[in-house]
Each structure stands twice: as structure tokens, then as C-alpha cells.
């Protein structure tokens, strides 16, 4: 170590989140706050919309149909949104889709204020919102490597995870209070206000035009991105591991029935909060993640531990142990997410980043959606607790099998990986002198 090299962090600083991206990038700070604010508003609608459907229809099937109308736009626009992110200015895509979300919140507000609110606008808004989110997320995910230094990307991934988990814990709690005591109109109105603030923040970030290698959005461009992902077995492994974990071991759909079996109906809210609470704990103590270099191994290990923790939640009969295992599972899921994000951001070329972000969106969105169907079907066939613990064990086994089949995932090292070093060298060469 040279005399002028910074001293490594010690003590408590090794656990606290690394704020280097926050200090170094004004655009990162603006996007971070924009996401935090709109995330709280989105959770208001996330809770209010099914509550309103329940009030209007009294049908559990009608409420469950929200997921069905969201799935197709998620798949279609996730892939096409990735191609758009590579071909258009990323900032403009983010701003316009954020503004579109605000208009959808306004539509929900107007419908809620009618003497007799209609049901069909709720489904239309859910589908359109899914489409806008699917277009926005690839643009947003592909923008981070442009506004954050290459070596700061793992820390940026952890800070972004912190933003989402804060919303995941506090958002539903706030939403429940607003809906119960203020009403649906106030929830939709507050969501609209958060989108206004978010747009005012995002319009101030620097323009982010397409790279000179960009191709026009088309089916051919989407296929090109898929071929690149297939050629990168370590990336393919991150997608496959996440899909396996979410499809086989996502228990949220059966938590109300698990609470009933344990004679602890009062604990349902705590069960829903336990997974994001575990994620939040990891985010708040994520300083250590910046010093890990073998990201693939951490993805595999944490995904397997997620499965084992979910299995534990299904096997134990004590509600407090169930909550503990769910919290552990949430922490493991966050670790996996941090290192998946680091691998994606530090190795994918800029001209392909949007299309690969579209594939990423599918890997971490479709899995939980389909996983709810699996857990519910297993619960009807084998019983609730069997559905939970068997899914967890299947997840751990599937992750282990994927690790054996994809050795490049296990040997990935950000210090030596050819794609990571090439991207790091390109960014170093492009940096202004003295930066």
C-alpha cells in the first residue's frame, strides 16, 4: 500500500453502507431521491387498488386478476423497453414514463371521486402501469453505470436496494393507515403528488443519449441482446438462479393461510413485513459488499440460503421462528440482488445495457408472479406448510444444480473477468484527465 492510499475502513464503518456513489455523483443522488419518493407513492396505490376492487366486486378472483392483466405488458414491454433504452435518450424515457405514471394516478383519483366508481379503469390502469414500468426500468437500470464510477457500482447497487427496501417496509404500513383512515382518494392523490416531485427531480439530471453503436429498437435488436446473454454463461446463471429462487420458494400467496394454521391471524402483517425487513437490515449493513470480488459465488450461496430459510419457515410451528426465518430469507435475497446487480452493471457493454436490463426485469419479475401460482397449487394439493418447506428445499437443490451446470458463475471474479476488465479500462480511458 502506498503512503497516499486511503486507509481501509474499520470497525462500524465496515458495515455501514458505502456512500461513495452518493458523494461522487449528483445525478445519482437525484435519481435516488426520485425513486424513494415515487416508491412510497406507488405503495399507496399498490395497497389501495386491490382494496378498491374488493369493495366494488367482493370477489377474490377479481382482485387476483390484477396480476393477470399486468403479466403480458410486463413481458412484452420489458423486452421492447430494453431495446428502446439502448436506442433513445435514457433520461427522456425515465421522465416521460414517470409522467405517464402520474397521469394514471390522476385517472385513479378521478374514478375514486365518482359517485359510483367503475371497475374497468382499475384493470386498464394496472395494465398500462405495468407497461410503463417495464419501459422505464431498463432505461433506469442501464443509466446507473453511466453516472456512477465503475468501482462504485456494487455500492450503488446496495444503496438502490436500500431505497427499495425502505419503501417495502414503510410504504405498505403508511398505505394501510391512509386507506383506512383517509380514504382511497387521498391515497391516489398522494401518489400523484409523489410523481410530480419525482419528475421535477429527474428532469434535472444530465442527458444520456444513445451510444454511437446503438441500433434501432426492433425484434432483431431484442434477439441480439438475448444472444449476448446466452453467450455469457455467468450472466445466464444469475438469471436462472433468480428465476429458480422466486418460482420455487416465493411463499407470499399462502402466508394468510399459514397464519391461520398457526392460530396467529394477528401475525399476517408481520409476515408480509418480515422479508423486506430482512432486506433492509442487509442494506443498512452493506458496507462489506464492496470488498467482495467473487460475486457469482455470493449469488449462488445467498439464493440457496434463501431457499433453506423459506424451508425453515414452513417446518417450524412457532410463529416467532417463522418470522425469524422469513427475515433471514429477506436478508439472503438482498445479498443475492446486490451481487447480481454488480455483475450486470460491471460487465455489460453500454450499447447492450438496456436490452440486457429488459431481460433482467423479466428474471426478477416473472419468477415471483408465477411462483405465487406454484405455491398456491402446492398448498391446495399437499397442504400449506408442505408447500412452503418443499418449495424452499426444491429451491436450494435447483440452485446447487445450476451451480454445477454453470461453472463460469462460480469462478466469476470481478478483478479478472475479461468483460469486467474491458469495461473498466474503457471507462478509465474515457474519463477526463485528472478525474
Describe this protein's structure.
The protein is 78% helix and 0% strand. It has 435 residues and is mainly α. The chain starts with 19 loop residues before the first helix and ends in a 5-residue tail after the last helix.
SSE topology:
Blueprint (H helix, E strand, L loop, with lengths): L19 H5 L1 H32 L2 H28 L2 H24 L6 H28 L5 H30 L1 H19 L16 H13 L1 H17 L5 H7 L6 H17 L10 H21 L3 H29 L5 H30 L1 H22 L1 H5 L6 H13 L5
Short description:
The protein is mainly alpha-helical. It has 17 helices and no strands. It is globular.
Report Rg: 22 Å
Order of helices and strands: HHHHHHHHHHHHHHHHH
What helical percentage do the residues reach?
over 70%
Number of helices: 17
Q: How many E strands?
A: 0
Q: Please state the overall shape, judged from the principal axes of the Cα atoms.
A: globular
Proportion of residues in extended strands? under 5%
Low-confidence stretches: 1-9
Secondary structure category: mainly alpha
Average pLDDT across residues?
85
Question: How many angstroms does the end-to-end distance come to?
Answer: 21 Å
Taking the sheet with the most strands, its summary is:
none
Amino acid at each position: 500500500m502506498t503512503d497516499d492510499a486511503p486507509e481501509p475502513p474499520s470497525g462500524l464503518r465496515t458495515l455501514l453502507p458505502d456512500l461513495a456513489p452518493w458523494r461522487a455523483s449528483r445525478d445519482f443522488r437525484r435519481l435516488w431521491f426520485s425513486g424513494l419518493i415515487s416508491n412510497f407513492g406507488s405503495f399507496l396505490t399498490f395497497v389501495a387498488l386491490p382494496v378498491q376492487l374488493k369493495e366494488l366486486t367482493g370477489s377474490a378472483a377479481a382482485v387476483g386478476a390484477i396480476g393477470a392483466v399486468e403479466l403480458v405488458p410486463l413481458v412484452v414491454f420489458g423486452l421492447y423497453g430494453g431495446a428502446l433504452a439502448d436506442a433513445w435518450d435514457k433520461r427522456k424515457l425515465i421522465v416521460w414514463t414517470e409522467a405517464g405514471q402520474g397521469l394514471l394516478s390522476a385517472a385513479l383519483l378521478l374514478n375514486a371521486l365518482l359517485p359510483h366508481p367503475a371497475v374497468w379503469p382499475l384493470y386498464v390502469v394496472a395494465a398500462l402501469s405495468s407497461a410503463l414500468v417495464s419501459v422505464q426500468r431498463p432505461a433506469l437500470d442501464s443509466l446507473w453505470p453511466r453516472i456512477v464510477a465503475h468501482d462504485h457500482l456494487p455500492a450503488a447497487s446496495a444503496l438502490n436496494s436500500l431505497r427499495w427496501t425502505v419503501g417495502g417496509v414503510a410504504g405498505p404500513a403508511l398505505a394501510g393507515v391512509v386507506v383506512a383512515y383517509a380514504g382511497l382518494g387521498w391515497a391516489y392523490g398522494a401518489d400523484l403528488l409523489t410523481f410530480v416531485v419525482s419528475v421535477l427531480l429527474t428532469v434535472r439530471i444530465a442527458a444520456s443519449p444513445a451510444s454511437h453503436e446503438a441500433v434501432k429498437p426492433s425484434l432483431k435488436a431484442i434477439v441480439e441482446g438475448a444472444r449476448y446473454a446466452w453467450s455469457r454463461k455467468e450472466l445466464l446463471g444469475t438469471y436462472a438462479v433468480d428465476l429458480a429462487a422466486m418460482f420455487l420458494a416465493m411463499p407470499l400467496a399462502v402466508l394468510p393461510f399459514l397464519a391461520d394454521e398457526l392460530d396467529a391471524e394477528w401475525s399476517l402483517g408481520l409476515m408480509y413485513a418480515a422479508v423486506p425487513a430482512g432486506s433492509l437490515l442487509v442494506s443498512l449493513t452493506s458496507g462489506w459488499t464492496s470488498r467482495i470480488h467473487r460475486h457469482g459465488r455470493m449469488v449462488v450461496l445467498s439464493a440457496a440460503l434463501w431457499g433453506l430459510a423459506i424451508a425453515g419457515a414452513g417446518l417450524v410451528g412457532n410463529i416467532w421462528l417463522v418470522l425469524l426465518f422469513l427475515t433471514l430469507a429477506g436478508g439472503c435475497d438482498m445479498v443475492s440482488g446486490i451481487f447480481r446487480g454488480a455483475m450486470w452493471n460491471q460487465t455489460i457493454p453500454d450499447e447492450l445495457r438496456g436490452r440486457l436490463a429488459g431481460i433482467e426485469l423479466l428474471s426478477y419479475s416473472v419468477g415471483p408472479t408465477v411462483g405465487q401460482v406454484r405455491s398456491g397449487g402446492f398448498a391446495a394439493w399437499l397442504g400449506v406448510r408442505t408447500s412452503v418447506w418443499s418449495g424452499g428445499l426444491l429451491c436450494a437443490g435447483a440452485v446447487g444444480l445450476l451451480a454445477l451446470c454453470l461453472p463460469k458463475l462460480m469462478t466469476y471474479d470481478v478483478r479478472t473477468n475479461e468483460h469486467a476488465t474491458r469495461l473498466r479500462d474503457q471507462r478509465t480511458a474515457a474519463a477526463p484527465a485528472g478525474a
